[in-house]
Protein: Olfactory receptor
Amino acid sequence: MHRRNQSTISEFLLLGLSNQPEQQNLIFALFLGMYLVTVVGNGLIILTIGLDSYLHTPMYIFLANLSFADISSISTSVPKMLMNIQTKSQSISYESCITQMYFSIMFVAIDNFLLGAMAYDRFVAICHPLNYMTIMQPRLCILLTVISWVLSNIVSLTHTLLLLQLLFCDSNTLPHFFCDLALLLELSCSDTMINELVLFLVGLPVITFPFAVILFSYICIVRAVMRISSTEGKWKAFSTCGSHLTVVLLFYGTIVGVYFFPSSTHRDDRDKIGAVLFTVVTPMVNPFIYSLRNKDMKGALKKLISRKSFLPLMP
Structure:
């Protein structure tokens, strides 16, 4: 069914992060800087993994997918916000809003699934090191990656198709900097009970299943590491999953801190803070975590940079 049969409005208004005109230039500069850092940082991770055959292992294949998802996630919302600030316009078309919502849901879901797959990889590497190559074969790695992307698209498509059945009447103002599903449901003048039920029934396993895999994996990892007699051996085992654990704590810590702990902050502001942490801050810091805390990535990045520096000197 065509959109005009479903909605009486043709665009939405995104109020952004602040309605204070004097703050817009600061927000523009800050988010432009964070966007460029995110794209360059994650792009370097992908390039490094692609060019260094030593990093063609399951953990780094998952990391390359995570970096691509992070670039894509921040690109669904920040460029539009920057353009609106620059043009002093708050509008986004109905079609663009639905598309933005689809991809924002998908990339949050893929982050969950990939973090779960990476935790399983660390579990096999530390708890079953002798069988690692047998278990984590390229076929399984590709299968886990494909399943993560397919499930994320199914989740996002489900919410999008249900949303397209709703009517939007007079109000078209979203107090946010991108089209968020929860706010769109509040804005609709149709009965959203089914949408909210599906949001809970689908969203709960998307969060809890990968988290359960991560929790189980790290419980087993801690038990295995504690059986190692030498302190050096324990530190070496923990260091192989330090970067992943840091990203996991940042990702799920944001969920707990923003959405589970009571705060005096207004709900709209709380949702904006959560969205900024998910879509901007986390994707931006992930490359720093993996490049600063991971010896393999640090070594590969140094080789890549030295190679790029050497090429202009060649005749």
Q: What stands out?
A: The chain has twelve helices and three strands.
